[in-house]
Amino acid sequence: MLLSSLILLSGLSFATAACSPTEEPANTEEPTPAPEPEPTPEPQPGNGHTLVVYFSCTNTTKGIAERIAEITDGALHRIVPETPYTSEDLNYNNSSSRANREQNDPAARPAISSKIENFSDYDVVFLGYPIWWGKAPKIIHTFLESLNLSGKTIVPFCTSHSSGIGSSDIDLHESAEKAAWKKGKRFNGNESAGTIKDWIESMNLNLNQNSNVGVFNLSKGENGKAPTVRLSSGYDMPIVGLGTYSLHGDVCVNSVKAALASGFRKIDTAHMYDNEEEVGQGVRESGVPREEIFVATKLYPNQFSNPEAAIEECLRKLDIGYIDLMLLHHPGTDDVKAYKAMEKYVAQGKIRSIGLSNYYIKEMTEFLPQVNIKPVLVQNEIHPYYQEKGIVEYMHSQGIVVEAWYPLGGRGHTAALLGNETISKIANAHGKSSAQVILRWDLQRGVVVIPGSSNPDHIKENISIFDFELTDEEMSQIAALDRNEKHDWY
Ligand SMILES: NC(=O)c1ccc[n+]([C@@H]2O[C@H](COP(=O)([O-])OP(=O)(O)OC[C@H]3O[C@@H](n4cnc5c(N)ncnc54)[C@H](OP(=O)(O)O)[C@@H]3O)[C@@H](O)[C@H]2O)c1
Ligand SMILES: Cc1cc2nc3c(=O)[nH]c(=O)nc-3n(C[C@H](O)[C@H](O)[C@H](O)COP(=O)(O)O)c2cc1C
């Protein structure tokens, strides 16, 4: 890397090496104490949604931004310059290099080619940049001036060779007077997650760290590798899983193994499916390390009166050490009692996360005040003919992940859904199958999917949905297919 080799070779300070005569020396071994920022407007109480925006030429700031996004569960956005910076552009020894010229020109505003989706949804914006001669690169001003920042809280951070954040963060305020600014902080490229976490916590930002349960980072997915969503328990769960309802014996074992071989890392079973033993066997025989696999099971209402015995039975049948996620299959007598038993198993580490299935707004509203651990997820019937729009919105507003059972309509109904004219047309336009379009539609609306299949080709197809994207228009066309048509009684 040009810059690091120069630093190593020359051992010169940035100030001597790079500043033009008009500049103040920027280099300090210790971070420069920054003057206190001017009082800025307090943001309105908001949703705590977090965005981590950064500019980075040699990926040092990128690394810190990724750690912040991981800690805050925030969305990540890289500022991409319309004209990328070459090594020569960044040469701080050359007084006429592009970076030098830009930093010395108060009017310079390098153009940005990247765009942020739904910027208005975010309350807290972490803003990262490298220090260039003691300042933020001018592209950060371009960024700030291009957006409506009113009501946002901005938290600047930077990386540098040795300079502190100095006044670079204060200078930015002029470009975004309507935002509330936090004092910025400089990090080393190799700063530990612990230090970054302490800093974030010290600011009391009131982040809603589970506010993004309904927005998946699909760009992180690859065919055969689904991204994860962070549950309110702190565990990450893949957003595509294999459903195993009606799979038994070797068919079930082989389907689980085929799914894991195709890259699935989540399997959904239940006491009621009578296949927990086969699911456990498939997991153990797959060759995939246990800790990489996320297994969900469910207690049936006829087990609620004696939940400890039921949980022990699940643990014994699955025989995979711990259960990643246990749900109550339906509301029913003693459901709170059963849930509280699951809470005890969470405390013992035998179950990692707990949630519900077939609970709607009324059931959930009544249930929540009675329990201590908030359900991380609700699993309900959801497909294009039964979309549960209001319910999805409500659950997401509660930080509860929504998962679709019968995503393809369920056995006996798949032909009608897969043959639907609108869906088929969209599928043809993308060179994908109708099943893939439906599953992708779910993910783009923030709904986790667990399609059931015993066909290895279908299994592979169902996790190959990360190489295309439905347009807003196509999403709306599928949304319009909703006809409140339930395919099962619960
Ligand atoms: N919580 C609850 O109350 C509840 C209720 C029902 C289901 N569930 C869960 O949700 C999961 C999903 O539901 P489900 O399996 O019943 O129904 P589903 O996923 O909507 O549909 C499964 C059917 O679709 C077919 N299929 C799968 N992938 C396909 C593809 N790419 N192209 C064409 N056909 C395809 C399967 O046949 P092939 O085998 O031939 O691929 C199977 O017949 C269940 O397995 C279960 O884990 C939960
Ligand atoms: C044009 C330019 C000017 C720089 N000026 C300084 C400086 O004044 N003080 C300093 O400590 N580091 C300076 N650096 C080093 C960068 O701030 C540091 O390498 C930073 O971590 C790079 O971040 P990035 O990899 O995200 O682009 C400069 C680097 C460049 C390219």
UniProtKB/TrEMBL annotation:
Residues 32-44 have a biased composition (Pro residues). The keyword Cytoplasm does not apply. Residues 19-49, 87-108 are annotated as: Disordered. Residues 21-31 have a biased composition (Low complexity). It comes from the Bacteria. This is Aldo/keto reductase. One of its GO terms (molecular function) is oxidoreductase activity, acting on the CH-OH group of donors, NAD or NADP as acceptor.
